[in-house]
């Protein structure tokens, strides 16, 4: 700002600072002082004055004005000392009708006054009657867009002068009102939600009675759109063609526009297909012109259409949130004061300097917020200039357009919305039949032909709640797939709305028989079972991470392809399976298994999985009458299909749930996951605790599905609560990949402070340059990037997560921009991610990113599974470390008691604002077991000998398991009985529970509650009284040899635990005495051979303090 003011003062110029209150408050205070200095110098009539340490000449004509929109997002309130320097002028709402009338006259309209009034009235009625949406705008800029469209139509569609001269005034007015109506419809219809369309149609029909719009003939452009769809394996449905043409109309009247809509609504595919179609029209026209010039065939007669003259179109895509503001627009180096251009500045300058008439579309694909979009205001308004902080101003050339691709405009300011044209796309309007057709088109040709999917599309889109006219275009609308590096690229697919009518393809096929041919069977299975299940999951099941119907559908298709291609991918394989008569059974079984582990595996709880299992089984058996759902929906299924949905050989087992089995395509049978888990190798004797993975049915399923995803080349997302083994399972699977085919996995852990630049650096560090602009893993191998804690990065002020946006750019566009502002194509890199459910510092991840992933949710493990996991680990440790059988036999009881403590803690010790650390998870159980494994058999023996003088000879105080052996030796003997070992082992368990759970408690009443719980559990699982087990803790440090029998009566009286209290009334163990229960590895010296010191019980706090003081003295003496 100081540079501006210096120039104004020296030149005596005027300046208007637009949107002045976007400057930070700290800067505004400095600006106020600068303006005051200039005003005082002018008032004093000085010709030379000192400004910011510089002597400047002053011309008294210098003056500045500011404009601002108060109350917008990203704006600040002007400080009082700055307000006092300017005179406030309030701008009133302009007379839209008068402005519109004058502009229409300038375009040659004779009926300008009634037309202007109708335009203004239309917007007024829309603002009153239509719903309120973030992307709706009815201001002056919206009126101007209609007027520009009306001017274009007047030039291109108006009748020739001789025909217009023969018209009566009434005919001329009707002709002009028709053009005005078309302008209103073309500019506004594309942004309305489906439920607002009938209201809008009612408004315009009332304003323009008797005026009907003829169907627009796009001529060669429509044919080019269909050709572009065919070349990209897209389905040119009516809805998709409508949105593509609406985007084309918007490009003609707005240089800045936004594609708004949720994932699977077709935003990316719409502009890509339109750009390809415009290029195709231009190429065809150029070829026809060249042929005509060479004396060949005449140019196509379609050139009479105003849409036949097109130019080639290029797109340049940037994710504005994947880079910093400085990397986007440019920044000054604070050390060298050199200006460095940003990605957008480089591309904008290149496009603006290009003299060719070709269209250039700068696509900014990312969240729109007030942080970066406000810098585009001068580009989006009538100035059409990009102003950089370096002072450079780049004018936008006529062939350029700015296209913003966003999911929503929840945090965009009205100033931004009003500057852009809007094209809104709704996934709810899309069916999944074209998605299915596009996928089947990518499968091998020897799988047969696809039946008439379009004929059944009405069943897939039934119940959408749209008008009949819209429903006619909904038939499988715009669902599209594009083949990319990661397999099948989902561009559009639809939400399966509930309430569809009974399927016609179902499991019956077109003729009431089971369809033959792999493609026909998959199509029938999808409509008859998969689509209803997706609708069921959407309505009845709580998901761990919100999914999209199109995402569930594509997950099913990918899994089916990944499972069938290895066994049916070649004609020889298909022929062999067909000769054996197991092809259809295999297809049905794989389709069912893929359904369970795609649409059915997003349930957050075991109860949700049970609901899905019950629904699928009832759907297969035709017994839906007893199915109770909260919404009372049938989901398009009949009670008794005339033909079974599956062939008999593909029927899953009746026992267990569908989640308990997998279909082995090689054996042709259903196999329980537990069989795979049982076949895993034993735990190595030298394994580290943190690296141990106990195979369970859940881990077997995760490993199999992850390996399938890697082989199928599609991204994978694992979601589950903390402590369910997500990271360990994925890491182990990745480390077992074939080193000849795969580079070492790149494992990245996200945190709250992870930045996009750091993420990009970690990925780029493992890539080699393959050719110019293309990078990939070394040696031409494939690479896997594992991102753990995906949802940990902290959100920005307006909700964006830059590291997530960077990875989304990699998924969407196959690369990102380097520090040199050159796009880097990244090949053969697959993303595998894991995260916990949102909450506790974890934020929800945008569905524009998760749409790419096959999502698998791991619900909380059942108690039996946890007992198996921890019991296996504890049993391995006790046996491999040589513990006696009496201690080994305690394994199951120790695990059961630990799980009881954990269950009670999560139900009773709930977090509050003052106790936010009361968050318990399975890692707490793991820490208890890990703490117990810090003591080996020798340490346990030493611990008994160390505590024998305090407890008494022969292991007194031990009940339950070993009392009969206690007489074998006195306190001075080195003999240790099984009873003493058992009691010492139990004291170790009590200590670890106290350290993990008790030390977290802040109130004495809660501490006493936990002690009472331990009394119950020790008595229940070990037949020992806790007060007897820990009776030595009640003695003072100077009475180690006091006999235990003096406490016997109190211990017996305390055998019936009471809730509450503070250890009184006979309870020996209380919050005061339990602090004396200590274990550690510092009571003995090291053996000099590097072996760990024994983890033993400490007789008393006095002994611990004495030992630590001795160690401190020894350490201090070492420096001498």
UniProtKB/TrEMBL annotation:
Which Gene Ontology BP terms does the record give? microtubule-based movement
GO molecular-function terms, A-Z: ATP binding; dynein intermediate chain binding; dynein light intermediate chain binding
**SMART domains for the chain:** AAA
Q: Which organism is it from?
A: Volvox reticuliferus
InterPro entries referenced in this protein's UniProt entry, alphabetically: AAA+_ATPase (IPR003593), AAA_6 (IPR035699), DHC (IPR026983), DNAH3_AAA_lid_1 (IPR041589), Dynein_AAA1S (IPR043157), Dynein_AAA5_ext (IPR041466), P-loop_NTPase (IPR027417)
* Taxonomic lineage from the root: Eukaryota, Viridiplantae, Chlorophyta, core chlorophytes, Chlorophyceae
One Gene Ontology CC term in the entry: dynein complex
Low complexity bias locations = 1039-1057
Protein family per UniProt:
Belongs to the dynein heavy chain family.
Q: What is this protein called?
A: AAA+ ATPase domain-containing protein
Q: Name one Pfam family in it.
A: AAA_7
What ranges does the record give for the region Disordered, renumbered to this chain?
1037-1072
Query: Which residues are in the AAA+ ATPase domain?
Result: 253-416, 712-858
């Amino acid at each position: 700002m100081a540079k501006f003011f210096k120039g104004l003062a020296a030149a005596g110029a005027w300046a208007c600072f637009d949107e002045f209150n976007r400057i930070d408050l700290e800067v505004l205070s400095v600006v106020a002082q600068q303006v005051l200095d200039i005003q005082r110098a002018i008032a004093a009539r000085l010709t030379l004055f000192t400004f910011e340490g510089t002597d400047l000449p002053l011309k008294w004509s210098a003056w500045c004005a500011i404009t601002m929109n108060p109350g917008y997002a990203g704006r600040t309130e002007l400080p009082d000392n700055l307000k006092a320097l300017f005179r406030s002028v309030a701008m009133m709402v302009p007379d839209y009708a008068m402005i519109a009338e004058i502009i229409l006259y300038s375009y040659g309209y004779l009926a300008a006054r009634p037309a202007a009034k109708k335009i203004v009235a239309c917007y007024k009625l829309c603002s009153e009657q239509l719903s309120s949406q973030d992307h709706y705008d009815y201001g002056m800029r919206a009126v101007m867009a209609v007027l520009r469209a009306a001017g274009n139509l007047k030039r291109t569609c108006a009748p020739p002068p001789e025909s217009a001269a023969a018209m009566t005034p009434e005919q001329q007015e009707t002709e002009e009102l028709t053009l005005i109506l078309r302008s209103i419809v073309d500019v506004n219809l594309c942004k309305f939600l489906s439920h607002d369309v009938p209201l809008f149609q009612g408004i315009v029909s009332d304003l323009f009675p008797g005026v009907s719009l003829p169907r627009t003939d796009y001529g060669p452009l429509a044919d080019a759109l269909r050709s572009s769809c065919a070349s990209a394996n897209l389905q040119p449905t009516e809805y998709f063609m409508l949105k593509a043409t609406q985007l084309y109309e918007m490009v003609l009247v707005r240089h800045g526009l936004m594609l708004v809509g949720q994932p699977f609504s077709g935003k990316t595919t719409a502009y890509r297909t339109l750009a390809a179609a415009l290029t195709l029209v231009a190429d065809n026209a150029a070829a026809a012109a060249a042929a005509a010039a060479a004396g060949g065939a005449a140019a196509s007669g379609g050139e009479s259409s105003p849409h036949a003259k097109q130019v080639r179109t290029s797109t340049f895509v940037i994710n504005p949130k994947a880079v910093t503001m400085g990397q986007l627009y440019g920044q000054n180096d604070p050390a060298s004061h050199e200006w460095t251009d940003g990605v957008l500045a480089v591309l904008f300058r290149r496009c603006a300097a290009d003299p060719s008439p070709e269209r250039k579309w700068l696509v900014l694909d990312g969240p729109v917020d007030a942080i970066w979009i406000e810098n585009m205001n001068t580009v989006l308004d009538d100035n059409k200039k990009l102003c950089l902080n370096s002072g450079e101003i780049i004018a936008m050339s006529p062939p350029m357009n700015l296209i913003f691709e966003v999911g929503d405009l929840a945090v965009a300011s009205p100033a931004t919305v009003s500057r852009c044209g809007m094209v809104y796309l709704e996934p709810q309007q899309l069916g999944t039949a074209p998605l299915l057709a596009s996928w089947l088109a990518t499968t091998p040709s020897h799988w047969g032909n696809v039946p008439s999917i379009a004929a059944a599309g009405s069943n897939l889109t039934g119940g959408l709640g749209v008008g009949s006219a819209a429903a006619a275009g909904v038939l499988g609308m715009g669902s599209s797939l594009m083949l990319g590096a990661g397999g099948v690229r989902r561009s559009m697919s639809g939400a399966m709305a509930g309430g569809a009518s009974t399927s016609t393809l179902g499991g019956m096929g077109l003729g009431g028989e089971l369809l033959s041919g792999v493609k026909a069977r998959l199509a029938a299975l999808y409509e008859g079972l998969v689509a209803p299940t997706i609708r069921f999951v959407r309505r009845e099941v709580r998901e761990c991470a919100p999914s999209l119907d199109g995402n569930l559908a594509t997950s099913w298709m990918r899994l089916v392809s990944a499972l069938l291609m290895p066994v049916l991918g070649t004609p020889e394989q298909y022929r062999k399976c067909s000769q054996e008569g197991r092809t259809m059974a295999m297809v049905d079984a794989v389709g069912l298994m893929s359904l369970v582990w795609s649409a059915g595996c997003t349930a957050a709880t075991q109860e949700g999985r049970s609901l899905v299992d019950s629904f699928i089984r009832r759907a297969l058996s035709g017994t839906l009458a007893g199915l109770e759902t909260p919404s009372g929906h049938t989901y398009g299924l009949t009670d008794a299909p005339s033909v079974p949905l599956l062939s008999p050989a593909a029927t899953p087992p009746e026992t267990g749930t569908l989640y308990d089995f997998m279909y082995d395509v090689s054996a042709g049978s259903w196999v329980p996951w537990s069989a795979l888990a049982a076949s895993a190798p034993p735990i190595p004797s030298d394994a580290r605790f943190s690296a141990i993975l106990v195979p369970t049915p859940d881990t077997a399923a995760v490993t199999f599905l992850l390996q399938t995803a890697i082989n199928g080349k599609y991204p994978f997302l694992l979601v589950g609560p903390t402590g369910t083994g997500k990271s360990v399972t994925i890491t182990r699977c990745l480390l077992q990949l074939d080193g000849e085919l795969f580079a070492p996995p790149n494992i990245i852990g996200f945190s709250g402070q992870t930045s996009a630049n750091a993420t990009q650096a970690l990925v780029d560090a493992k890539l080699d340059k393959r050719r110019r602009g293309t990078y990939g893993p070394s040696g031409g191998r494939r690479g896997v990037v594992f991102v753990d804690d995906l949802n940990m990065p902290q959100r920005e002020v307006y909700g964006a997560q830059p590291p997530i946006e960077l990875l989304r750019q990699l998924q969407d566009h196959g690369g990102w921009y380097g520090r040199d502002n050159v796009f880097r194509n990244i090949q053969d890199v697959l993303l595998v991610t894991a995260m916990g459910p949102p909450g506790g510092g974890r934020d929800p991840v945008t569905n524009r990113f998760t749409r790419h992933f096959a999502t698998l949710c791991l619900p909380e493990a059942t108690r039996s599974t946890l007992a198996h996991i921890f019991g296996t680990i504890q049993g391995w440790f006790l046996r491999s470390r040589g513990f006696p059988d009496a201690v080994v036999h305690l394994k199951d009881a120790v695990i059961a008691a630990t799980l009881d403590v954990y269950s009670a803690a999560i139900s009773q010790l709930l977090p509050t604002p003052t106790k936010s650390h009361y968050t318990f998870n399975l890692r707490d159980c793991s820490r208890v077991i890990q703490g117990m494994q810090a003591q080996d058999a020798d340490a346990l023996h030493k611990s008994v000998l160390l505590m024998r003088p305090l407890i008494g000879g022969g292991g007194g105080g031990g009940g339950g398991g070993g009392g009969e052996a206690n007489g074998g030796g006195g306190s001075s003997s080195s003999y240790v009985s099984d009873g003493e070992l058992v009691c010492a082992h139990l004291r170790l368990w009590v200590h670890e529970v106290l350290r993990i759970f008790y030390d977290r408690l802040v109130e004495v009443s809660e501490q006493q509650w936990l002690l009472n719980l331990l009394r119950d559990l020790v008595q229940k699982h070990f037949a020992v009284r806790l007060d007897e087990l820990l009776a030595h803790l009640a003695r003072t440090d100077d009475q180690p040899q006091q006999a235990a029998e003096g406490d016997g009566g109190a211990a017996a009286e305390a055998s019936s635990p009471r809730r509450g209290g503070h250890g009184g009334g006979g309870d020996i163990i209380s919050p005061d005495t339990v602090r004396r229960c200590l274990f550690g590895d510092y009571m003995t010296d090291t053996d000099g051979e590097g072996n760990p010191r024994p983890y033993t019980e400490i007789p008393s706090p006095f002994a611990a303090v004495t030992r630590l003081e001795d160690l401190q003295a020894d350490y201090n003496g070492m420096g001498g």
